[in-house]
Structures are given as C-alpha cells and as structure tokens.
Design a protein that fits this description.
The complex is a heterotrimer of chains A (506), B (497) and C (497). Chain A has 20 helices and two strands. Chain B contains 20 helices and two strands. Chain C has 20 helices and two strands. In chain C, strand 1 and strand 2 form a beta hairpin. With 497 residues, chain C is mainly α. Helices cover 74% and strands 3% of the residues of chain C. Classes of the chains: A mainly alpha (506), B mainly alpha (497), C mainly alpha (497). Chains A and C meet through strand 1, helix 5, helix 6 and helix 7 of A and helix 17, helix 18 and helix 20 of C.
Chain lengths: 506, 497, 497
C-alpha cells in the first residue's frame, strides 16, 4: 500500500538532515546544539505516532504498509525499498522514543557535545533503516551504518576501558555481519534480486528446483545461509556464547549509548530473526529450533548468574540484558518449532512484546545507573548502601524499573514473559522449565542490586554528596515508566498491532 | 647484377663525398691562414659545411628507384647509403659544434691550441670513410673504406698528446683495430677464394650454386664478424671501448660510439644480407648469441661504473646488443624488412641521443675537471636546462617515451618478436636487460637532480655552439619519439639495399 | 552538445593541457614561485572542469566510445594512429585522474624546494594517466603508460622522504618498468599475430587470436600491466614507493597510477585475449585474493603511519583484480566502482598522512596521538576514508565492494568468503590507526608544535570526503549507470569469444 506522505523516508532522514545542519553550528554553542538535537529527534517521534494512527493492522492488501520504492542501484538489482508491518512499527516507535530520551539524558554532557549529538542522530537513522528496509542490500547498509556512530560514541565518550570495549564491539559485530553479507549476496546472486518480497517468493520455493547451487545441494546451501544469518543476528542479540562483547560495550558506553545499545541495538538482532530467518528459512528454522532453544535457555540462566556475580552496577544491568533477551530468543525458537500453531502465535507475540518491553526498562535501568554514576563517579555496588533515605525519588524510580525488569505482574515485563513461557511450554517443556528457574535468578540479582544500592547500612560517605534527581532526569524516565505501566495493565493496544502481523508471518 | 659502365651522372652519386674532400681541403687552407684566435671559428665552418653537404646530398644524391652499382661495381647508391650518409654527416656536424669552444674553458691538457684544423680535417676524412663504408659493394672497396675511417679515428682518439690516457687510448684503439682488421681481411680473402669474386652482390649466386659446403662461408662470415664486431663494439670484441672512450677527447668518444658504430652496422647489414642470405639461419644464431652477450655484459658492467664515460662506454656496448637484435630479425625472411628498419631507426635515435649525452659529459668534464659521476651532484642547480637535456638523453637511452630511444627499441624488439621463437627469446632478454639499463641511467639523473649538502654551487654556463648542438640533439630526440612517421619513412628508405 | 563534440577535440585538450602547462612552467623563471603554482592550479582546475564536462556529457544510454577523435594516422606504415575516446569504464577514471591531479597540486601548495620542476613533473604525470585512460590505440596507450616513468622517479627521488627515497624510487621504477616492458613484448606479439598490422584497439578486439596464442600470451600481458596495480607477488614496490614519495605523488601513484595498471590489464589483456582470460581467471583470482588478505595482514603490523596506507592499497587493489577475474557483470561493475572509490579514498589517506607528517615530523604511529583536537577536519577526513576502506555502507567503498563479492560468488564462493575476511582485518588496522593517531593523549613532544591545517588542505579533505559519501549514497545515479554501459560492452566481447 502506497502512502501519500513518505512517512518512512521522513522519519528515516530527519535525524540525518539534523545532524548535517548541526555540523554547521559552532562547537561552543552547546545550548543550541543540545536543544536542536532534542527537537530534531522529537519530529520522528511525532511522525511515528501519526503513522501509528494511520496504520491499519487489519489491512489485507499486501503485507507491508507505507511502502516506498525508488531507484537506487539497479545495476546490481538493489533498490530503495521501504515498508513496515506491525513488528517494524513497534520497533520504530521504540527507537524514536528512546532517542530523544537518550539525548535528553546526555544534556549533562559538557565536552564535545557537537560530535556526540551528530553521531547520536546518525545512529538513529542507521537503526531505523534496518527496521524499514525491504531491500536486503539496503538492510545491510543500515545494519552496518549504525555500528560506526556507536563505535565512536563508545570509544570517545566511554569509560576507562573504552578502547578495548569499542574495538571488541565493532569487530565482533562486523565479524558477525560478514556472514550476513555473504549470505545476502549468495541469495542475491541466486535470485538475481535483493528485494525482500521477491525473496519471499523465490528463495523459499527454491527447494522445488533440483539444480545444485555452487556445486552443493540446495538444502545444504540453505542450511549454510541459515547459519550465516543466525550467527550474525545471534551476535547482535546476543545469544550465548556470542555475548562476550556485550558486557564490555554496555559498561563502557556513555549513558545514552548504553540506553540505545540495550534498548534498540539488541533488538536489531531479534528483528533479523523475525524478518529474515523465520520467513526465509521455515524448514531450517524448524529443524534447528531446539538448538536455538537450548542456547536461549543458557542465555537466560548464565546471563542471570553472570549478573548476580557482578559488583559493578552497570555490568550487572548489562548481564541482565542477556538474560532478558534470552526470553525473546526462546519465544522465537518456540514459534519456529511450532510454526502454524496457536502456541507459535503466543510465543511470537510474547517475543515481540518482550523486545519492546526490554527496550523500555533496559534503557531506564541504564539511565538510572548513569544518574547515580554522574553523582558518585563510581558504580561499585559495595560502595553504595542505604541510599533510599538520601534519595527517595531516585529510590522509588529505581525500584519501579527493577520490578518491571523482574517481571512483576502489573508491569510490562510480566505480560511478555508470560506470553513467551505460555507459548513455549508445550513446545519445549524442559527448556521452558529451566528458564523458569532462570526467572528465579533474575529476581535474585535484581534484589541484590536494590539491596546493595538502596537498602542496608547507609554509607555515610555519600551524605551531602548526592543530590536528588533533577527535573530533566525525571522527564527522561517518566515516559518510560508510563509506558511500562500502561502495557502492564492494558497491553491490548500494542498486542493488536503485533498479533496481526505475526499471524501473517506463517 | 651487372655494374653499369661509367657515366658522368655517377659523380652526382658521390657528390657528398667529393664535397667532403673539398671541405677538408678548405679547412686545411683556413687553418693555415687564420690566426690562432680565430681558429675557433673553424668548428663553425666545418659544421656549416657539413650541413650544406647534407642539403646537397638530400637534393642531388638521391637513390634511384632501382639501386645501381656504380664505378665498376665498387659503390652502390641505394637507400642504405643515402640514409647512413645523413647519420654520419649529422654526427660529424654535431661533434664539430661540441668541439668549438673546448679551448674557451681553461682546463689544462685538454687540447693543444692551434691544432683545430687537424682535428676537423681528420674528422672529415673519417666521415668520408664512413660514407664509403656504407656504400661499398665490393670487398676491396669495403676494406679500403674501413681503413680510411679507422686511421683518422686512431689519431683522434689519441689527440690529446699531453694526456697519457689519451695517448694510451689512441694506441689501444689502433692495436685492437689493426688486429681485428687483419682477421677480417683473412675472412675476406677466404670469401674471395671460395667465390672468385669480390663483389658482394655477385656472391649470392655462388652460394646458391651449391658447390660450396655451408661450413666454409660460415667460417668466413665469422672471421669478418671479428672486424665488424670491433667497429660496433659488441661482446666479445668490446674490450677496447671503455678504455678508449675514457681516454679519448669526449666528443671523439661520442663520435666513435655513434657514427663509427653506425658505419659498422651499415656494413654489417649489407655484408650479411646482400652476400650471405642463404646461410642466414646460421649467422642469425651467431649474432643472437653476440647480441644477448652484449646486452647482458654491457648493462651489468655499466651498472657498476663510477666514471660517466666508462658508464656510457658499457652502455654503448649494450646498445650495440639491442641493435644487433634488429640485425638478427633482419636475417629472418618474415621480419627482414622490419628488422632492417628497426636498425635504421635505432641508429638514428641513438646517434642524437648519445651525442647529446657525450656532449654534456664533455662540457661537465671540462668545466669541473672530472668525469666522476659524483661531480654531477647539483647539476640541476647549476644549470637546470643542461640537467633537463641530460634527462632527455638518459631516458632516451633507457628507452622511455616520448623519446627516440623508445621507438628504436620498440621497432627492433618488434621485429624480433615477429621473427619467431629465437627472436622472442632475444626480445625478452632485451627488455629485461633494459631494466638494468634504466637503473643506471636513472642513477645518473638522481645525482644530477639531487641537491648536495655543499651550500654554494657556482652556475655552469654554456656557450652558443654547445647550446646549438645540444638543442639540435634534444629536439631530434623528441621528434624521433613523437613525430615518428617521417623518420620511419627514412628508415624504410634506408632498409632498401 | 552534438555540435560541440564535432568541433572541439575536448579529449585531446584534456590530455595535453597538463603537459603543455608543464612545459610552460619549465620555461618560467625559477623565482616566480607564485606564478608557477597559480599556473599549475589553474591548469589542473581547467583539466578537472573539462573532465567533468566529458563525464557529465557521457551518454550511458548510447554507450560505447564517445568523444572519439581519430583514428588519425600517426605512423601509417606501422598501423599506429592517434585515436582517443572514452567508454563507460574509462570515463570515471578520467575524472578520477583529473580530481587527484587538482588536489595533488593543492596539497603541494607550499612546496619550497624547486617548485617549478615539481609542478611541471606533476603535470606531466597527469598527462600520462589521462592519456592511458583515453587511448584507443595500443601503441598510444603504451606510449602514455611509459611516459610516467621519469616524473615518478624524479619526483620521489627529489622531493621524497629523505631516508628511503632513493631505494623506494628505484624499486618502484624498476618494478614497473620491468612489468611494462614484458607487457610490451606481449603487445608486439599481438600486433603480429593479429595479421592486421594495426594497433587500433577496436580492430584488435575483432582479431580473433587463436586459443593457443591467447593461452600462451595472456599471462605475459596481464601480469606485465598488473604489476602496476600491485598484484601479488609483484606488489612490494607499492608500499615502499608510496611511502618514499612526496604527498602529491603518493596520491597520484596509489590513487591513479595503480588504476592505470589495472585498467591496462583489463583493456589490453582481458579484452583482447578473452579466451586466455577465461583460462587463466583462476590464477588471477588466487593471486588477487592473496593480495586482499596478505596486504591487510601486513598493514595490521606496520608501525609507520604511511606504510599502513601503502599496504592497504595493495589489499584494495586485490579486490579490483578479483572483480576483473570473475569476468561477470557484477564483478566488473564493482571493480569499476572500486577503482574510482579507492582512488579518491587513498588520495585522501595520503593527503592526511602528509598533513600529519608536515606538522609532526614523524610518521611513527607510536609517536603520534591526540591529533583530533588540533586538526579535526583532517581527522574526520581520515576517518571517512577509513570507513570507505572498511567497506562501510553509506560510503563509496561499500557500493564498490558489494558487487565485487557478488561477482566472486558467481565464480567461486571460496574467494568471496576469504576476501570478505580481508574486510574485517581492514577494519582492525584502520580503527587502530585512527585511535592511535587521532585520539588518546598527545605525546609531549608534539604539544604546542602541531597546528591545524590550512584552507587549501581543508578544501581537499572536504571535497574528497563529500565525493565518497555522495557516491556511497547514490551509486547508480553518479557512476554505476555509466559504468554499466562499459561493462555491457565488455560482456559482449567476452561472450563473443
């Protein structure tokens, strides 16, 4: 369905244009730069909300809406093709929401503001492009494009270990995406097109054609391509054992960087599973789903254990992302294994919602870690203690966020994890059971963090040093908390959009 | 082919040679009448006379469409004669100009003042001899011509009687020349004995008759090759060249390495192709070996020289090797034409190139009193245009476009490739060794263009005569490398014999 | 426009304008530095405008050769003609050469040592590369190809970095010369084997060389030319030469000259001997893949800033050759893109390296650091070039490498996979260099001594960066459309074999 207004292009490129404009603002005009970036990032959010209103979940004509297609690189069969369905829409909303919040969170920045804001806005374009692209070459363009700004955000504005962490981050993810590149090219060369919709037709039915590819049977080639995709996305999600870059990168990144990393970038991997792996490789997905489920379970358990073992607050939150993203993968695995059944639908709905939810509370948690770090200049859990008495508002917000992440009923995390577990249960009983034990560990480390920071004996060192959250900081968390609560109580509005799309996936 | 009976018109054919003799006589007279101070103009006069003779030759002494043997079969006016004549005359003219101001620079021992006349006369006689060499169609005439050329050159090489190196050079040149000439003469006599004729163009019939075993003419050819090899300074008859070039007055060395070498090639072409086409497959192999050895030995030894004249000497040995590649190709029926044309073109460009190089060396040597390559340091600062001329000359020797040397190499290697497997092998040897060549030519340029640590370098002015000579050479090098067609036309003409 | 084409010999003007300006500059007095450099700048600017005109007016819909002049007989007897024209594949390269020439002049704005010779030689180099890209006559192509020898050598030797310039210049020149003369033998072999006795490339394309001939001579021709593109194992001249050269020459060498090699290998070896190309493609694929991985690995361990870039060129040119060797539409298209993209990128790299060196007086990576704060524009330029080099989407490197890998998939998935590994190594060394040189702490020795770059330098950096981004965003509109028409023509030739 074509739309009169090129919503997608506008959302996609407003941040880029804003970044280019900022280039011409003198570096010492910090106020102009900050507010300019913030306002510029609100525009895509507004447009996304507008688009959400116009989005028709029940549309029957075509799977994608707001499609745009334009001439780009026809010499090799690639075009500028954008379009969204319910899953992308949810992710776009998450992105356009978190970016202004991230910028607002970075208002405390005093050094090299200009570079930071420009990179941040470029990062937004990169991420949005992945969710919108319906051309696989374009998809890859945006997939990689996001890496560069993030690399520089970490390596320039990051913590002590930033050099190591940023290089590890980019080499891991680039290494992972090489497989993606090769697989995309292989399919592109085989089908003579990079258009996603074409692939859905050509590539899936390739099994019927008996001719071998590259001297190998089609099924073998497909398996190889499948694993290339899986590895690329697994690094990004990250799925155990491809996760080791994550704690380093998240810990060293600046606050806003961590918010976006955990909030959106990890979703890119999961989105890749949903958009590319399951639809293009239904057979292989089904075949290898149990393996994926095992890895997901390991991520849940080991992520939680890893988090529990941390003394660094930020590192703890970073490990928790592995744990939470494990549920997304579990949901995807279950959906792949049980494709076509109600269980698959439930699991998939849960997975997508979990992506959105994790985006909210992970960003919130990282922001809150940043808030305390800005004041205390340490993240050592053992250095805190009894801060609730000093900072009651902060304490309340932190408690709220932690509960959301813990999966407290009434907040958003519960809804999605419940859906995942409900969907996965009949499919992978053992894996799901063990994952439930993982939830127990989740509780353990969350409470450990809360205990160490807020409860216990007050570390008198902080008296007089720590100040309460500012209004700006509250403005950052308020939308997150509101959404967490709304979804926790009434998830139907978002599940409706997700569910209709999920149904067409199979 | 029957020699024409005598006709008065035959004198037109040797008009340039007659004019040369007249010019020599004129110079001799002027030498006696002019005062010492004015003798420097003798060089101008000689050069001017040579230019006039060139004009005469171009206007009046053109070869007929059907080449003729004249003067009882002694001489032959054909394309080869015609074109080589220009090579010799031009070479002599430029050499004269290079000599004009040698006395103005007061370096002791360079030249005894007052002997200009002798110098130019000897040069003219040598040139006359070369003309005859190129046009000889008879073994006797050929031998006489060779000696007419050689004797003045022996004296010129030893012209600086106060300089022991020059004397030694003259002596060495003479001894080598005499010995190789004797061997060559022995070969000539063998040929006469086998065929009963001294006319080069009459011999083919004898070989074709089939009465003579192949081995015999081959032996005769190889004996004659000793003499020619000496003239063109090809390995293994090259030992004299470095010492003679180093000791002789530099312009003379330039003349030896160009005109005299060209004369050798003229004879070689006519001798081998007119008289011995039947055994071409045999002598091409011999020549190919000589060519390969010259290219390899010449280049390798040149690369290690510290004295620029020795470097140019070894380089001229290597260049002889390249030209021989063309001769080898000319021996094969497929590439006969292109081979000879390549030789002609190569000699044309080599003439102006090497004269320019030796001219600059002469100037620098006289001004700075040394021929070590190291004295060239900072030449570019002293006289940028001289350095540019050196650049052109060296790169042309190296075979780089847009200069004449490139076209020469292209043509001889082209002919070699056309001729077949042996030629292709030679061509590969040629191109690989030319890389070594480029190495030492560039080395000279590097030194000339680099700025030495010493702060002040005095300028190095040049005189008008020198400038005219060098500019002529450089212009011709460039013209040979860019406006190729007319020169190639000349080569086509010269390859008809 | 049609009328314009008929009247104005635009390509010829474009080709010869730099050389003529070079000659004019040589004739100017040495102390008029300002005049000299303004003439150089003006000329190269006009050259770029003309090249842009040619580029923009190239009609990809019609395809084929456009702005054709000739063939006008040059040496008619040998079938040599002056014949120029551009097709979809060469027209971006013409533009590239003009771009790099202009920025090379701008980057050299403050040359103090003999600016006259410097700019003149640089402009000669410009004519050489422009001539190769627009030649439709094989002799002429080779002529221009070799024309670059002396400017390259002398510029490195005279203005290069003092420690290694003699070695680097000689190594570079000899490597390239040996490659080109070996190719020359191949060229001659084709000339004769075609039976047409013409150097006209269009004619030779139709010569129909026998398969045995193609099989035997393809490696000679391809490798001979590809030495200049840095093909393994003949690549070692490249890093040494690039590092020794002054900035503008490094830009020209790595940016344009290496493309000259690749272009000539394609234009002559692959297009004239398509059957040979198909038979030998596997070998080129192997060598080029080694280029990619080996070059990147060696770059990873370099301690000298400039050597990193030198080896990166080796690695990237490997991708170009892979694209050629696939002989597929995608591979050739990608190679075309990569040649332009890499040319711009590496020019920018070397420009920034030069700026850093001019200010810090060291290229040891260990002694640099924190330069972002003092020279942000240069640093951002370097980062952008780095991203291009890593094949990051959004930049020209990606849209160039992507089709190359697609081409590789069609012939050998193994090559695609291994070559992609080269990309991640590239990311590693580029990021390390960026971090060490531009970020982190500035060493005490540099504090206060290193200043920002000048306006001229900023224009260079920004223009080159914008070009790479623009090409990355609009590949088809800016270049691939034009290239496509050239590639179609090649495919027809390959298919016809």
């Amino acid at each position: 369905m074509q739309s009169a207004t090129p919503f997608l292009s506008l959302i996609l490129f407003i941040p880029t244009v804003a970044a280019l404009l900022l280039l011409f603002v003198p570096s010492n005009e910090r106020g102009v730069i900050k507010w300019g970036a913030f306002i510029a990032s609100l525009l895509p959010l507004a447009l996304t909300i507008l688009m959400w209103m116009q989005f028709s979940p029940n549309a029957v004509t075509g799977r994608f809406q707001f499609e745009e297609i334009a001439y780009w690189y026809p010499a090799i069969g690639a075009s500028y093709h954008l379009g969204i369905d319910g899953i992308s829409l949810t992710m776009i909303f998450l992105t356009t929401l978190l970016v202004p919040l991230g910028i607002l969170a970075s208002f405390s920045l005093t050094e090299r503001v200009k570079g930071f804001m420009i990179l941040f806005l470029l990062l937004e374009t990169g991420m949005l492009g992945v969710f919108m692209a319906l051309d696989l070459m374009l998809f890859f363009v945006f997939w990689e494009a996001g890496l560069v700004p993030m690399y520089f955000l970490i390596s320039q504005w990051g913590g002590k270990n930033r050099n190591y962490a940023s290089l590890k981050f980019i080499l891991y993810t680039m290494g992972g995406s090489l497989g993606l590149l090769l697989a995309i090219q292989m399919i592109g060369v085989t089908t003579k097109s990079y258009d996603y919709l074409q692939w859905l037709g050509n590539w899936r039915t390739l099994d019927a054609v008996a001719r071998p590819l590259f001297g190998l049977p089609v099924s073998t080639v497909k398996s190889i391509a499948f694993w290339a995709f899986v590895v690329a996305f697994a690094v990004k999600v990250p799925i155990w054992p491809f996760h080791t870059w994550l704690p380093d990168a998240h810990t060293e990144a600046p606050t806003a960087g961590s918010m976006i990393l955990a909030g959106v970038m990890l979703k890119l991997g999961a989105y890749g599973f949903l958009r590319l792996v399951l639809p293009l490789f239904p057979v292989q997905s089904k075949e290898y789903a149990p393996a994926l489920a095992v890895l997901a379970t390991l991520a849940i358990i080991l992520g939680a254990l890893g988090a529990f073992g941390q003394d660094d607050f930020k590192r703890l939150v970073a490990y928790s992302s592995i744990n939470h993203m494990g549920f997304v993968v579990l949901g995807i695995a279950a959906a792949a294994a049980a494709a076509g059944t109600d269980n698959a639908l439930l699991a998939m709905n849960g997975a997508v919602l979990q992506m959105f939810n994790h985006g909210l509370y992970a960003a919130g948690m990282f922001f809150l870690v940043g808030v305390i770090y800005d004041r205390a200049h340490t993240r050592d859990l053992n250095a805190f203690g009894g801060l609730w008495r000093l900072l009651p508002i902060y304490g309340t917000v932190l408690m709220f966020m932690s509960m959301a992440s813990l999966g407290l009923p009434g907040l958003n995390g519960f809804v999605s994890e419940f859906l995942v577990v409900r969907g996965a249960w009949p499919v992978f009983i053992a894996a799901t059971t063990i994952s439930m034990i993982g939830v127990f560990f989740t509780g353990a480390y969350t409470l450990k963090a809360l205990w160490k920071v807020l409860q216990g004996p007050l570390n008198v060192h902080w008296v007089g040093h720590l100040t309460e959250m500012t209004t700006r900081e509250l403005v950052v968390v308020a939308p997150l908390m509101a959404l967490i609560l709304v979804i926790g109580i009434w998830p139907a509005w978002i599940l409706d959009v997700i569910n209709k799309t999920v149904m067409t996936l199979f | 082919m029957q020699p024409n009976p005598f006709q008065p018109a035959m004198f037109l054919a040797i008009l340039p040679e007659i004019a040369l003799a007249v010019l020599a006589a004129l110079i001799l007279t002027l030498d006696l009448t002019l005062g010492t101070a004015r003798k420097r103009y003798l060089g101008w006069v000689t050069a001017g006379g040579l230019v006039i003779i060139m004009a005469l030759a171009a206007a009046l002494s053109r070869p007929a469409a059907q080449p003729e043997l004249i003067f009882g079969g002694m001489l032959r006016l054909d394309g080869l004669t015609f074109v080589f004549r220009f090579i010799f005359l031009l070479g002599a003219a430029i050499t004269c100009l290079l000599m004009v101001d040698s006395a103005t620079v007061a370096t002791p021992g360079v030249r005894a003042p007052g002997r200009e006349g002798e110098f130019y006369v000897l040069l003219l006689i040598a040139t006359l001899g070369m003309d005859l060499m190129a046009s000889s169609a008879d073994l006797v005439m050929l031998y006489l011509a060779i000696e007419t050329t050689s004797l003045p050159l022996y004296i010129l090489a030893g012209f600086l009687t106060r300089d022991p190196r020059s004397t030694e050079a003259g002596m060495k040149y003479f001894l080598f020349g005499a010995m190789t000439a004797a061997i060559m003469l022995y070969g000539f006599s063998l040929i006469f004995g086998l065929t009963g004729t001294t006319n080069l163009y009459a011999m083919t019939a004898q070989w074709s008759a089939g009465k003579i075993p192949v081995a015999l003419p081959l032996v005769a050819v190889m004996l004659a090759l000793v003499g020619f090899g000496f003239k063109i300074s090809a390995v293994p008859f090259h030992f004299w060249a470095p010492d003679v070039y180093e000791g002789a007055p530099t312009p003379v060395a330039g003349f030896l390495s160009t005109a005299s070498k060209a004369a050798g090639f003229a004879v070689l072409l006519r001798f081998l192709l007119a008289a011995f086409p039947q055994i071409a497959p045999d002598w091409t192999v011999v020549l190919a070996v000589i060519a390969a050895a010259s290219m390899i030995v010449g280049n390798l030894l040149a690369a290690v020289q510290k004295n620029i004249k020795r470097l140019l000497a070894y380089s001229s040995i290597a260049q002889a090797g390249y030209i021989l590649v063309g001769v080898v190709a000319a021996g094969s029926p497929i590439s006969a034409k292109l081979g000879a044309q390549g030789v002609l073109y190569y000699l044309l460009s080599y003439l102006v190139t090497n004269l320019a190089a030796f001219g600059i060396v002469a100037w620098v040597g006289r001004s700075l009193g040394s021929d070590d390559i190291s004295v060239y340091a900072g030449l570019q600062k002293r006289n940028p245009y001289l350095a540019l001329a050196l650049l052109v000359a060296m790169l042309s020797l190296g075979g780089v476009p847009p200069l004449g040397g490139f076209m020469g190499k292209l043509l001889v290697f082209g002919a070699a490739v056309q001729s077949g497997t042996l030629g292709i092998v030679l061509a590969f040897i040629g191109v690989i060794t030319s890389v070594i060549g480029l190495y030492y030519y560039l080395n000279v340029l590097r030194i000339a263009f680099s700025v030495p640590a010493e702060a002040h370098l005095p300028a190095l002015p040049v005189t008008v005569a020198f400038r005219v000579a060098i500019i002529t050479c450089v212009a011709l090098i460039l013209a040979l490398g860019t406006i190729i067609a007319p020169w190639f036309g000349l080569s086509i003409l010269g390859a008809a014999f | 426009m049609v009328l314009l084409r008929a009247i104005i010999p635009l390509l010829s003007i474009l080709i010869f304008l730099p050389a003529i300006a070079g000659l004019v500059i040589l004739a100017l007095p040495e102390n008029r530095r300002n005049l000299i450099r303004w003439v150089a700048l003006g000329t190269s600017l006009v050259t770029l405008l003309l090249a842009l005109l040619v580029y923009v007016s190239y009609d990809a819909g019609i395809g084929g050769y456009q702005w054709v002049e000739g063939p006008f007989p040059w040496v008619g007897a040998l079938g040599i003609s002056y014949f120029v024209g551009v097709d979809g594949l060469s027209v971006p390269l013409v533009l590239l050469a003009a771009v790099v020439l202009l920025f090379g002049v701008m980057i050299s704005w403050n040359v103090e040592d003999r600016p006259r010779e410097y700019f003149a030689f640089l402009l000669f180099l410009g004519t050489s590369v422009l001539g190769v890209f627009s030649s439709l006559d094989l002799f002429q192509l080779f002529f221009f190809f070799e024309l670059a020898v002396f400017p390259k050598y002398l510029m490195i030797v005279l203005w290069g970095s003092p420690k290694t310039r003699n070695y680097g210049a000689m190594k570079l020149t000899l490597y390239l010369f040996i490659g080109s003369v070996v190719a020359l033998v191949g060229v001659l072999a084709m000339y004769f084997a075609s039976g047409k006795f013409t150097f006209n490339l269009i004619e030779l394309e139709r010569a129909g060389f026998s398969p045995a001939f193609q099989y035997a001579w393809f490696p000679v021709l391809f490798l001979g030319f590809a030495v200049l593109s840095g093909i393994f194992p003949f690549h070692s001249w490249a890093p040494d030469g690039h590092v020794a050269a002054p900035t503008a020459v490094s830009m020209m060498l790595a940016g344009v000259e290496m493309k000259v090699g690749a272009f000539a290998a394609l234009r002559v070896a692959i297009l004239l001997l398509p059957i040979g190309a198909k038979q030998w493609a596997w070998a080129i694929l192997i060598l080029a893949t080694i280029n990619v991985v080996y070059g990147a690995l060696i770059a990873l361990i370099q301690k000298d800033f400039k050597y990193v870039i030198g080896f990166s060129s080796v690695s990237h040119m490997g991708l170009v050759l892979i694209g050629f060797a696939t002989l597929t539409h995608d591979g050739l298209l990608g190679s075309g893109m990569q040649m332009f993209s890499h040319g711009i990128m590496t020019a920018l790299f070397f420009a920034v390296v030069g700026m850093v060196y001019d200010r810090a007086h060291t290229r040891e990576i260990g002694q640099l650091g924190g330069l972002f704060r003092v020279m942000p524009v240069a640093a951002i330029g370097f980062i952008i070039a780095g991203l291009v080099s890593m094949g990051m989407p959004g930049f020209s490197g990606f849209v160039a490498e992507f089709p190359i890998f697609m081409g590789a998939w069609q012939v050998s998935p193994a090559v695609a996979i291994i070559a992609v590994l080269g990309v991640i190594i590239t990311a590693g060394y580029i990021l390390l260099v960026i971090r060490r040189v531009f970020f982190g702490e500035m060493p005490a020795a540099l504090q206060g001594r290193v200043g920002d770059i000048g306006m001229m330098d900023k224009i260079v950096v920004i223009s080159l960066s914008v070009m790479m981004i623009a090409l990355g965003w609009f590949p088809q509109a800016l270049m691939a459309g034009i290239l496509n028409s050239g590639v179609q023509r090649i495919l027809t030739l390959l298919g016809g074999a």
